[in-house]
Design goal:
The protein has 196 residues and is an alpha/beta fold. It has a single domain, classed as Rossmann fold (3-Layer(aba) Sandwich). Helices cover 34% and strands 18% of the residues. It contains six helices and six strands, in the order βαβαβαααβαββ. It has a six-stranded mixed β-sheet. β5 and β6 form a beta hairpin. α1 packs parallel to α2 and α5 crosses α6. The longest helix has 21 residues.
């Protein structure tokens, strides 16, 4: 099975590089235009699995209109807690001590007042496995999946040799990967992947 894994298009807050996790922002006009352009470049899919957040649902509807979709809660972005809908520059300028203390760590386990990385990894993996199983049961040969930068990065880390690095491995808006996936005794297994 092929999975066309795409990050949502440009949403309100993305140009300012806001921590957008659970903040439910819509696509900007330039995001709508980008998704329409990208739709012509992506292959057809038989079903779309999508995050419940508006920016992902709007992107999925623009990329693959009229294709049946399944919303999976587990595909949502991480909850940034105290940093939600704020920027690095704003928090540094305000001398936000919680943020400065968080930055000073050598290893992070999540976000203050938000979600832990362990919780995020567990729910994303469960959602991905659910999508692969559901699609296989339906006889799908190619599906779409629209999610978020953090979600995609974790999926790559879990199923490929790409390691999580939010600086180096950030997926562009409407960018993504084509994954070749098969089911095995232990769940889904990625046999190949290429950038879209």
């Amino acid at each position: 099975m092929e999975i066309i894994l795409v990050r949502h298009s440009i949403a309100a807050g993305n140009p300012e590089r806001r921590f957008l996790g659970v903040t439910d922002m819509p696509l900007l006009p330039e995001g709508i235009a980008l998704a329409k352009q990208r739709a012509a470049e992506l292959p057809d899919v038989e079903r779309v699995y999508v995050s419940p957040l508006l920016r992902a649902r709007q992107t999925a509807a623009l990329l693959w209109p009229k294709v049946p979709e399944t919303i999976l809660q587990g595909l949502r972005e991480i909850d940034f807690g105290a940093f939600e809908n704020r920027t690095h520059a704003e928090m540094v300028a305000a001398q936000d001590q919680v943020y400065l203390d968080w930055l000073a760590q050598t290893q992070w386990e999540g976000y203050p007042g938000g979600e832990t990385f362990a919780n995020m990894r567990a729910r994303v993996k469960e959602a991905f496995e659910t999508a692969v199983s559901d699609a296989a049961d339906r006889g799908c040969r190619r599906i779409g999946m629209v999610a978020h930068g953090g979600t995609i990065l974790y999926l790559l880390e879990c199923y490929t040799d790409v390691r999580a690095d939010f600086g180096a491995n950030r997926t562009a808006n409407c960018g993504g990967y084509c994954l070749s996936v098969e089911r095995c005794e232990t769940g889904a297994r990625c046999t190949a992947y290429t950038a879209l």
